[in-house]
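Researcher: We're reviewing a set of sequences before deciding which ones to prioritize for further study. For each one, I'd like a predicted 3D structure that I can look through quickly. This is C-GCAxxG-C-C family protein. If possible, include the structure in token form so it fits the rest of the review sheet.
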Amino acid sequence: MIIIDFSCAVRTLKILSELYYLELHPQIIAAFGLNAGRWGSQCGLVEGALLFFGVYGSQNSVNKEKITDLCHKFCSEFQACFGSLLCKELRPQGLTLIIFLIFVKV
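Model: Here's the predicted structure for C-GCAxxG-C-C family protein, in token form for your review sheet.
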């Protein structure tokens, strides 16, 4: 059995990419797989969504200004809804209480 621990950003990106049939390059997953060093900065749900908007938009020839506007609107709405974009404010108990694992039989 292999245990894989995905960060919030990677989980969000993977879920959105599966819903919208977007193929992701493994380097994208590797780059965001470290929970930003568990520093508590920008929320991984936000990072994953923003990355998805950029990758999906560029693969579908969406104008960069439209992608930027969408990202800005998403961040604004997220902050209005949840009060912050920062993980350490959204999850003051830290990252160690919830660990997401996927179990894969080998």
